[in-house]
Amino acid sequence: MGFATDAIHVGQEPDPATGAIIVPIYQTSTFVQEGLGKHKGYEYARTSNPTRAALERNLAALEGGRFAFAFASGMAAINAVMSLLKGGDHVVAGRSLYGGSFRLFERVLKDFGLSFSYANTCRLEEVERALRPNTRLIFIETPANPVMEITDISAVAALAHERATPLAVDNTFMSPYFQRPLQLRADIVIHSTTKYLNGHSDGVGGAVILNDAALAERLKFIQNAAGAVLGPFDSWLVLRGVKTLAARMLQHDRNGLAVAEHLARHSRVKKVHYPGLPSHPQHELAKRQMTGFGGMLSFETGSFANAKTVLKSVRLCSLAESLGGVETLISHPATMTHASVPEDERNRIGITDGLVRISVGIEDVEDIIADLDQALGSV
To answer: Is 62 in a helix, a strand, or coil?
Structure first.
């Protein structure tokens, strides 16, 4: 079956009890058992819930994986993956990560004995130099938030597997519609389902998808033991959102490219970061690795004052954190999503005070462009 067909139907079969075409919200904390050790596959909602199970089957199919686990947030999903490790283990991570990931690594997990090195994963030699004898995971985002650097997943996977090290890829920016890291030999895929998978800015969640049965068994244990599970209503919201994922991503992609091309020509924009532009340093890799370029981009205004003026002047675009919703969101990474990253590190990877990030929505693109034009006109 095709992607859109799977998105609509896998895990979302009609309810056998009633024929309801939409998966019910099983809003229950526990399940009555027929007798000791005799139940209908469900005992307690933290361990498993039919609505969450339907979502997990759906997401596994969309990423081409065997197993999927849904969590209470994208950060809970990342923390669960890191819980596969133990004190003394080392992680090589991309230098350009969501600020929340960096905060978790540096201000929480280091206290539990994990160590982290950060590399420009666009350069395979830097990844190789960062590896240590105790490296037990490579963790990347591609495209990276917010400077849109692209990592060659297959190349890093090959390097990782030479050392029997798993590769985890945060695929939130692309969604499985435009990029499927497991097919590129990654071992673990992570999503903030809050973003494109849900697509409507009305729920928070996360997911991990993988093929390895041993890792999956351990992750299922962690999911149940730690308990940061996605609730039934939020699971239902993602199931609702995924049904239109293919259609939405096509429109995000069309609008994203149109906005990026317009901003690249704008006299008051210094630089645009968007993998769909030929000027992007990894444009050719993006064309090989992804089937579209998506709706995420960032652009340089030249100063904090200019960025602040733009953000204050927009009318249609909404100043807010998060991304991937049907509405266009605009943000200032240095003081919002990446405020937890030290300033010198932000500047080193291009997250300047003048950088503005846009999650291009699916409104009429002429209206998005007109709003950005009038805001830039105030600079």
So the answer is: helix
Pairing of strands 135-141, 90-94: parallel
Q: Would you give per-residue pLDDT tens digits along the chain (379 residues)?
A: 899 999 999 999 999 889 999 999 999 999 999 888 888 889 999 999 999 999 999 999 999 999 999 999 999 999 999 999 999 999 999 999 999 999 999 999 999 999 999 999 999 999 999 999 999 999 999 999 999 999 999 999 999 999 999 999 999 999 999 999 999 999 999 999 999 999 999 999 999 999 999 999 999 999 999 999 999 999 999 999 999 999 999 999 999 999 999 999 999 999 999 999 999 999 999 999 999 999 999 999 999 999 999 999 999 999 999 999 999 999 999 999 999 899 998 998 999 999 999 999 999 999 999 999 999 999 9
Q: What are the DSSP calls for 94-127, one per residue?
A: ESS--HHHHHHHHHTGGGGT-EEEEE-TTSHHHH
344 belongs to the catalytic site: no
The one catalytic residue among 26, 98, 118, 196: 98
Active site residue 243: no
Catalytic residue among 15, 42, 46, 254: 46
CATH number for the domain spanning 123: value is 3.40.640.10
**CATH number of the domain within which 264 lies:** 3.90.1150.10
Paired sense of beta strands 188-192 and 206-210, if any: antiparallel
307 shares its domain with 341? yes
Is there a catalytic annotation at residue 195?
A: yes
Q: What is the pTM of this model?
A: 0.96
Annotated active-site residue 98? The verdict is: yes
The one catalytic residue in 136, 195, 346, 357 is 195
